[in-house]
UniProtKB/TrEMBL annotation:
Protein's name according to its UniProt entry: ATP-binding cassette domain-containing protein
Gene3D superfamilies: P-loop containing nucleotide triphosphate hydrolases (3.40.50.300)
Cross-referenced InterPro entries: AAA+_ATPase, ABC_transporter-like_ATP-bd, ABC_transporter-like_CS, P-loop_NTPase
Species classification: Bacteria, Bacillati, Actinomycetota, Actinomycetes, Kitasatosporales
Keyword hit for Nucleotide-binding: yes
Record key words, sorted: ATP-binding, Nucleotide-binding, Transport
Gene Ontology MF terms: ATP binding
Source organism of this protein record: Streptomyces smyrnaeus
Length: 312
């Protein structure tokens, strides 16, 4: 169990983590989402004592990281895949970590095997590709057989096989009762991997709940309408706009309608003798939910993002 209580970090006059209070439960994979600069890494760094909170606390089983006798046996973290000394071999790197935390050297070949790096155990970490470095970082996180795992973008740099492997690994670690907390910008992957989601923007909590709930929040607002190109869709779009709907035409035979319930769209189509092939609520996706949740919290936005928010 990982608990954040009013966790706050300020750099100069800027609050980068703002009064975060939440619990990351054992037995589940919890995804940590937020735009660039939202404060995810800073939050994780505070959990493992690499940054000092300005106020509030991060507790593992009720204890601050700094007070854990053998922290690696309680919390395993992958925060920076390139953190290993480049001149040390994978094996040396893990042995050094094991020694400094009272972990048996026998764990080293076990975790190397678990992450698929046995063949390159004698190679220097500095020669590793990003994907290999991520695997070594995951091996380090697993070394102490910890009950809490913190992983900052663990699939960054991994090929599709590697991404699938991480997903399977994290799900099985959670199934063993561990607390798994990971950040990623890959929405589709997060949707597949995480049981729960925590979303932050500009350091503040925007959502915290089961993945299906976060994805479903605000879903069903968009209605997809499909019909023959010259079957009256344009007239239906005008009629819907007069009702206050926002209407986009993503394809000549398609309308995307928001602001009017599906039933009303059907009634108006019927009244206007508009020929329809399809009328359905748009499927909820995490990407859409995320865009909606974070629309006011993006610090480094480009113009395209503004268009997306406006639904153009
Ligand atoms: N040591 C520091 N000194 C000053 N500002 C910092 C420091 N570390 C982080 N920040 C600032 O804190 C904010 C949050 O950064 P953080 O790396 O935690 O965000 P993030 O959500 O992990 O972003 P990304 O998705 O890009 O990795 C950023 O504006 C960053 O510039």
């Amino acid at each position: 169990m990982l608990t954040l209580r009013g966790l706050t970090k300020r750099y100069g006059g800027k609050t980068v983590v703002d009064d975060l209070t939440l619990e990351v439960a054992p037995g589940k994979v919890t995804g940590f989402l937020g735009p660039n600069g939202a404060g995810k890494s800073t939050t994780m760094r505070m959990v493992v004592g690499l940054d000092e909170p300005t106020s509030g606390a991060a507790l593992i089983r009720g204890t601050p990281y700094a007070e854990l006798a053998h922290p690696l046996r309680v919390v395993g973290a992958l925060l920076d895949a390139r953190a290993a000394h480049p001149r040390r071999t994978a094996q040396q790197h893990l042995l050094a970590m094991a020694r400094s935390n009272g972990i048996s050297a026998r764990r080293v070949p076990e975790v190397l095997d678990a992450v698929g790096l046995t063949q390159v155990a004698g190679k220097r970490a500095g020669s590793f590709s990003l994907g290999m470095a991520q695997r070594l970082g995951i091996a380090g996180a697993l070394l102490g057989d910890p009950e809490v795992l913190l992983l900052d973008e663990p699939v960054n740099g991994l090929d599709p096989d590697g991404v699938l492997w991480v997903r399977t690994l994290l799900r099985s670690l959670a199934a063993e009762g561990r607390t798994v907390f990971l950040s990623s910008h890959l929405m589709s992957e997060m949707e597949l991997t995480a049981d729960r989601l925590v979303v932050i923007g500009r350091g503040r909590l925007l959502a915290d709940g089961p993945t299906a709930e976060v994805v479903g929040a605000g879903a069903g607002r968009t209605v997809c309408v499909r019909g023959p190109q010259h079957g009256g869709l344009a007239a239906l779009a005008d009629r819907l706009r007069r009702e206050g709907a926002e209407v986009a035409r993503p394809a000549p035979d398609e309308l995307s309608v928001s602001g009017v319930p599906l039933e009303r769209v059907g009634d108006l189509a019927h009244e206007g003798h508009v020929h329809l092939y399809e009328l359905r609520a748009a499927e909820a996706s995490l990407e859409e939910a995320y865009m909606r949740l974070t629309s006011q919290s993006v610090e480094y936005a480009q113009e395209g993002r503004t268009d997306l928010e406006a639904g153009v």
